[in-house]
Batch of 2 targets.
Target 1
Amino acid sequence: MRKLNIIAVSFMLFVWGTAKAELVVSNWDGYSPADIMETFEATTGFKGEMSFHATNEEIMGKVVASKGAGYDVLFVSSPFAEALNELGLLATINHSKIPNMKNLDSWSMNLDFDLGNQFQVPYAWGTTGICYRSDLVSEAPTSWNHLLNPPLDLHGKVTMLSTDRWLLSAGMLSLGFSVNETDPAKLGMVKDVLISAKQNLLSYDDTTFYSKLVSGEAAMAHAWDGWCNYATWENPDVKFVVPSEGSDLWVDTMVILRGSENMDAAHAFINYILDENIGAWTIENILYKTPNKVAMEKTIPGLVDSFPNMGYSAQYLSSMETLKDVGDATKLYATTVADILAD
Amino acid sequence: MKKIYLSLIFCFLYIPILTLITLSFNKSGLPTSWGGFSISWYFDLFDNQKIFKALLNTIIVAFFSTAIAGLLGTLLAMGMELKKSNKYVEATAFIPMIIPDIVMAISLLSFFTLLQFTLGLHSIIISHVVFNTAFVCAVVRTRFKYFDHNVIEASYDLGGKHVITFIKITLPIILPGVIAGSLLAFTLSFDEFIIAFFTSGAGSSSTTLPMLIYSMIRFGVTPEINALSTFIILFSFIIVFISQRAVKGKLLI
Amino acid sequence: MLKNRLILPGLIWISLFLLIPCVIVFTYSFFERGVYGGIEYSFNLDNYARSFKWTYFKILLTSGQIAFLAAFISVVIGFPAAYCITKANPKYQILLLFFMMLPFWSNYLIRTYSWMVLLNNQGLINNLLIYIGLIDEPIRLLYTKFSVVVGLIYNYLPFVILSIFASLSSMNKEIIEASEDLGGSFFDNLFRVIIPLSLPGILAGFIFVFVLSIGNFITPDLLGGGKFLMIGNLIYDQFLSARDWPFGASLSLILVTIMLSLLFIQSLILTRKKL
């Protein structure tokens, strides 16, 4: 009798735990409207579920280890989309199933890591720079060196991004190198610059730096432009600048996994996301720019006064270098970062 | 004297909790600046279906993995202690604790993928049992160090069968270890993120609370989560209070 | 025999769901990372050669130092607490244990954020110290080794208390009381009877905190400000950021080997102390 109960419970667990929805999308929580799967179903009839991941690296790890089992659409940043494609895990995007592609800015259709949007569709984009409290710095920063070598009164009041690609790119750009640099000698120079920069840092911070700027614990932060807006929202003295040496273009993209059994639903979902209203939601709620030019035209005029970086044009953004997967040099990057952080 | 020391320890344990409870009433979404008193986060919380689904999933996973691990770990401890154990068994019982989480997570996922095993809550439970068993075993074993084996011999001599001996003689002696180990296992499982993330199926039916909370890290963890933690703590507190009343303090130690 | 039947279920579960998967991953350590993160099956020992770099040794030392401090202080603080609970009214012991674990059913991330609020320059602790006049200006408490150790102690202290309690409670109470009845100073009692009795629990607790701390990657990240790379972060980075499973596997194998040797030492201590 007991045994039967155990089997019954196990079966229920099994069914509960593996209840399959039609479409499974993985995204960062809060990156799309909370009710998106319901409105998607209401509009297109396709049922779906949103799953969440905390970082690009984690969903990459999971998808690579499981060969994408169970997932249909992923929201990942561009270097990861590129790597997934090289690993053969992505499906080719069928543009004929995504009429809303026409909403996308033409500049976003020819990004150098995926000309013609063959394996990914961009969702949001922006650049990286210095987010700072204009009232706490004696002069506004204009160069990456202001971040890496701050004046004495700002020692211990500067944060840098901790994700390896951006951590390194600050050093690379300050020395005039490419953000996809692979020459070991040059990376050695980058390492030295970043080791000496570390002495002046408050911390490496990807997630709470904007609250530090608001509270004044930090005066300058290495930041993504969209995130800087959260600080500006709370304190209008917070401003953003793209350093004179230039910066990178980061793109958050949507990809479809090759093993997906719901191709139609997946394409319909991407199409739905590219709708101008969803684009507008992203702009107004996340304060990120999107390549959805129709949505941008609708919403930017109301925002650009408070958040000047929302006014960066698509042409300007696409002139920046995108982070690409550097293949074998990834090991060198990992070693360099370990050397910097262990110092 | 003892009371003072214990109170100090409890202060240490609860001050961050009081901080997080206070911040759940913070009008501003930031954890570092107080923006005024507000209970709006609690309203947001109770509207949030997916959080409660994740909470339920977490409780299911923690409960079942603790139950299974409690059994396996106790048996393992008994087997290792009642007769002299060899070093391979010792190592096997120890390895789940020392393997870095990410290695366990990726190995298990690769293994499950190789076997084409469908993932879901059950795969999380299976994975959690692995490390929970090791912890329960380690704690229960401490009860055996000064265990008088003659008592078991005596029970057999007097005609007791294995199961009876276990229930009437061994179990009462090791019970504090089993309870302590299970409490530990439940807590470990309840708040475990990385293994759960990797071994879960895709989809909200196998999303646990830690997975959900960590996924909010990119766009800021709002005081809604503080409200949730407050709710969980308060709820557990009330449950224990009620069950204490019901049992009227008849807990066996 | 009976012993075999008892240990079998646990052993089989662990072997099937941990040892076998891990062996598979550890074999990757003998191969190369593929260009985009897969595995290139060409046998070599490069990963192990790479592991013996000074940087990684430094990381291991830092992690060991922090983990040891956390474990040691946890035991020193936790032992008296467990002892007090053992002496408490039996009716309330489980309650006390339960209330001790309760804070840890909140979320790890939130608790860590709370510590960040408490330890930062405008936080409670600095304000308190200034108020009572101990210091004039806020001192840097956050983003230091200190804050990492405090965070680790906080999250793992209950583990120590639970395991020492398990070792010390009731059955052994009679031995403790007997020893107290026989006279002798408090310290005599402590060092000759109580501590030896609870040694298994103390060692188990110490090991829990040590192993959990050394593999932890969230606390050094948030409370250390990412400035102290610990072994947990390093291995996590290899598997996820660098997608270099072979190297990550070799680092993990080295770590596991070191820890197993420590286990061996621990069991030597225990067998020598058996009554």
Target 2
Amino acid sequence: MDIINADHLGKSFGPVRAVDDVSITVKEGEIFGFLGPNGAGKSTTIRMMTGVLTPDCGSAHICGIDIHKNPLEAKMKMGIIPENGTVYSDLTAEQNILWTAKFYGMDRVSRQKRADEILSYLGLAERRHDVVRTFSKGMRQRISIACAIVPSPPVLFLDEPTGGLDVYSRRLVIDTVRRMNEEGSTVFLTTHNIEEANELCTLISVIDKGRIIVTGSPEKLKKMFDTANYVEIAFEQPVKKEWFSIDGISHAELHGDKWRLYTNDPDKAVKNLAALAVRERLRIFSISTSTPTLEEVFVQLTAGAS
Amino acid sequence: MNIKLFIRSILLVAEKDMRIYNFKGGVVIFGLLFPFIMFLTFFIGRDLDIVLFFPAFLGMMLFFAASSNGLLITPWEKREKTYERLLSLPVTIESIILGDILAGSLFGIIITAITWGAGSLILHLPLANPLLLAVTFLLGGVTFAALGTLLSSPSMSNPSNAMMFSNLLRLSLLFISGIFIPLSRLGSWEFMLTSFSPLTYLVDLFNGAINGNGFYPAVLDITVLVLVILAFIGSTILIQQRNLMKGT
């Protein structure tokens, strides 16, 4: 079942076309990653999909409800962590969560129970009565997450949720996203952190200059760039670069103590390297074939679009 | 639209506003101290009947107190970037506006009611029409809370700029209302000028409710204030919807 649906969304700010004909479909239970460099149109798209910004054209549906025609009903189905993770700094951690929970019609007992549970999980139980003004950026972001997940929404939107966070807070955000997904939330995540997307997402779209340039699973995207495959090999003895002038290897580069050998046919390259080792009496210390990282794919895609 | 969700969102926005903004420096200074000091400046050293002019003081108090809250909220939230968080909750532009107006009205009405209560105790103020007084508090609170929300709607993210801009307008309104001069004593062009200010009609209602000497019929005052409320709210919604289109 399609739970998030954006249909031909478009938005211009003056002469700048920030988002151009963006269509996205996310199925129930997926973690969808929306990747793009800074200024690509990620935040504008998520703001239109969450009813914070009115699109020039197109529509967005959450659980089948049009966010711009029925904003109240659609927003009841989602929790949002906006960019910068802002919460009310004059309220306490607990007040922020309880007040947010009231919007979703939770009764007093279930609000309090859920707030207790989330504050403990996020490691903020001790600071529940402190005003958020006194919190660090990471702690504020945790409160922002708490507010988004307090109603256990079917859809969770996160706009750059780990930007500028320390390792512990970043890990906590990722674990929380995973946990919410396991509990049944469909997740829509914008990020420019490729490894985060690789780690979490089941489906990724890459946006650049306001247009989606590719959509697919992380592995499928990497597969698109198979031509960039290489074999990394380390020998116990020193070797000469010219020995790698063999069939299946286009060129060789020394990377630290190992050679990176670029190839269009890794199987053939490995066979020929084994033959080379026998012929030259070399001992292979390690060998591995590598596909491009998602980061490499991303760079190639966005550079290609430029 | 789901009316239950809509009303709940209005009440929750108002709850947040009252918790956070009622006692911010700008609201206390421009909403409470400012009208009090202005009244003292006008009154001290003159041989004026305080009972006669108390309705004007109440009108000014309600005018400043109810409008100050709304003036601060939107620019403050835009600066702190909490406005976007608020918009992402189950609310609409209309429920945010009405919630802000509700919070501003309640603040203005409570402060002015306390002032009226204290004035009644100390000065033994008359009370010609209690029901009209209640209606006056309600209409005055809503009118000027709506004015505050309207004035903060242009996309300003600096609360002090919003306050300065609004004070220019509020003081001009105060000036043209001639609230400390009975309408019957004004010259023709001055009289015409006062008819453009909603504050004139509010003070006239207070005069009618407390001293029983309103200049216009109460129905006329009430009609004007209701129309002004509708105009203020309608304009605010249009501006905020335009902001939502522009992303500001």
